[in-house]
Design brief:
By secondary structure, this protein is mostly helical. The protein contains three helices and no strands.
Length: 86
């Protein structure tokens, strides 16, 4: 269980950095991180980092699909973690 928590911490930090980097790249009109990759990172466990990245960098906040994927995957991970420990 310890390794799972370490994995979730690392994937959330990476996802947060990806959202902030994508915001920076958007401002500079440079090559962007694909939205599919941001969705994938949320599904792999980085939904908290994704939500923090959305709000703190004010990035992708007008796109409902990003809220959906991040909140849905967060719910699934919470469900998974709860029933893992029971």
């Amino acid at each position: 269980m310890k390794y799972l928590y370490m994995y979730l911490f690392i994937i959330n930090v990476i996802t947060f950095i990806m959202y902030c980097t994508d915001k920076f790249l958007a401002k500079k009109h440079l090559y962007r991180i694909p939205e599919r990759l941001l969705f994938l990172m949320a599904v792999l466990g980085g939904s908290i980092g994704g939500l923090l990245g959305m709000f703190l960098s004010r990035h992708k906040t007008k796109k409902v699909l990003f809220y959906f994927w991040n909140i849905m995957s967060l719910g699934i991970w919470i469900y998974f973690l709860f029933f893992q420990s029971v």
